[in-house]
Structure to design on (135 residues):
């Protein structure tokens, strides 16, 4: 499951440039390219995200899904979390575990900053930081 969310973490945008994922001290943790390729901080491919929300590892094996309603599932379609429209992130039992702010700031449940994912879809940012611990 951790691989699912790490890979998803890097697929946040459809822009023409790669978007960076940053830690709380603004060091780059990874990148998301416009073609859906997820790279680590050394630019090695870690995985892919498809337009339909399917998350794949670097070998193109399916490891999870991001549903259009914000539900995050593992490869067996078991729900592991939710991302609400307002950016609230919940675990599988609907307990709040953090927030994805509209400015790209990622906060834990106590509102402490975990990192930054500017211009990244909130669902993908949530997967990166809360389920994959990409910070």
């Amino acid at each position: 499951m951790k691989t699912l969310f790490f890979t998803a973490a890097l697929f946040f945008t459809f822009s023409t440039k790669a978007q960076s994922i940053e830690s709380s001290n603004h060091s780059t943790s990874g990148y998301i390219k416009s073609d859906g390729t997820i790279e680590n901080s050394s630019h090695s491919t870690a995985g892919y995200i498809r337009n339909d929300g399917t998350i794949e590892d670097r070998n193109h094996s399916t490891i999870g899904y991001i549903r259009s309603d914000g539900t995050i599932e593992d490869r067996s379609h078991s729900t592991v979390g939710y991302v609400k429209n307002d950016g609230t992130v919940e675990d599988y039992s609907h307990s709040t575990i953090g927030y994805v702010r509209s400015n790209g700031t990622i906060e834990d449940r106590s509102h402490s900053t975990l990192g930054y994912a500017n211009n990244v879809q909130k669902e993908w940012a949530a997967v990166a930081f809360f389920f994959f611990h990409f910070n």
Q: What stands out?
A: The radius of gyration is 13 Å. Confidence is low (pLDDT under 50) at residues 1-16. The helical segments are 2-9, 122-131.
